[in-house]
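Figure-free illustration: sequence to structure, shown twice.
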Amino acid sequence: MNPNVALFQGLYFLVSGVWPIIHIASFLKITGPKIDLWLVKTVGVLLSVIGAVLLCAGVMDQITTSIFYLGIGSAAGLTAIEIIYVSKKVISPIYLLDAVIEIILMIWWILL
């Protein structure tokens, strides 16, 4: 399997996960206000870990079935959450941009 999707998704998840941890003010300015900042940072930590694992797998060219499911499953989960909660007007429509990126990632994984 081609490691490029793991490298791209890994970097994307790592950057987007670390962002609210290191600069919550700019994150909130783009994504909108949040009530539970601890939850935002928790999701950031989890995205960072997933991103780091995907990056390592890509760099080492070790794209296993488990890595495939981690990549596609995390993208699918985020897409579902973002679409549901944007439609319920709980989170900002800016999250639909991320949903589009996640859908592209899922397609990329499937086309490998």
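We now fold a second protein in the same way, so the two outputs can be compared directly.
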Amino acid sequence: MARRRLLIIGNGMAGLRFLEELVERAPGRFDITAIGAEPVAAYNRVLLTSLLAGAIGADDVRLRPDAWYAGHSIKLVTGQGALALDVTGRRAFLCGGQWLPFDTLVLATGATPIRLDVSGADLAGVATLRTLEDIDRLARAAAIAPVVVIGGGALGIEAAYGLARRGAHVSLVQLADRLMERQLDPEGARLLAAALEASGVRILLGAEVRALRGSSRVKAVELADGRRLECHLAVMAVGIRPATALASQAGLKVCRGIVVDDRMQTSAPGIFAIGECAEHRGVCYGLLEPCYAQARVAAATLAGEAQSFMGSMPATHLKLSAIPVCSIGALDANDSIVVRDAGVPSYRKLVVADGRLKGAVLVGDTENALWYEELIRAGASVAPLGEKLAFGPAFAEAA
């Protein structure tokens, strides 16, 4: 009996995790081809800002060598994006000019960085941070100061910090009144901002970008209040958008992302979507853990196992040597426990509702982040622990 032809479009972290799960659960069952638009095999995108900062080397971001794919009889095609899908004919058209047939298709096309719709956004020297090639360009340009990073979320903060570590004079422009406004409360954000400024990053809050100025290359970022920030490089880190063009062209159901059910199947039989490109129950996930969970469910489904993806709790980890940050779960519940240590400095806020831990903000000391995350997921009562909850598992076990 001939093996079914499985095509996976996208060789990012979610796509690779799907392959790892599938060859473990259903070895030899499929004839697998994986294609990726980037010229190299899947790498750890989460570590790109650490690479930019010079904290790690290029080898540290590599995941599986080409030999791993060959060893599992996976045909890996790099540097080739897909331009079109023929759902009825069960084939995909690659930018290299060939059609690839499939019986089953998995879309792991990821996301694309958002660029602000302002004048000058297409000037040379206006960059985003998404790929290894982006890191190479930014590292070279960091030697020519100054730099403006637009966006005070996790990616923008890590980019600004990494560029400062490279020796650039960096200004970080944030539209909101605090950094990471969705993940941090005002006090935690102030502590983060102080650490960033101590590392050499200038922070401008409540600052709206009006335009980027320059003739052929960016020379300044102009703010809505008239201020001009001179720069040789402007990095837009204002979010990502699910890559849905291929699915939309093929007639699959697309809202913000490619719409999938609990088994990660799209609106077309035998076609699945996972990772940042997928939309499950109205939510698109841009974090690694839910993308991995979706990959696991899709692989289990193809292996004939009964698994479902039921959503994921948000958890954001900021990788800064100056001050680590972790934000988990909901931050708007009824009660909270706050611990401050100005000498370290560190800040810990635990959000409690109905006797259960619902969220946590850890700034400066994230050692117990995993324990708090497990408590939130378990949903068990933490009332017997009282305020000892704030001091970690050792105190809690004693209680």
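Summary for the second example: The mean pLDDT is 93.
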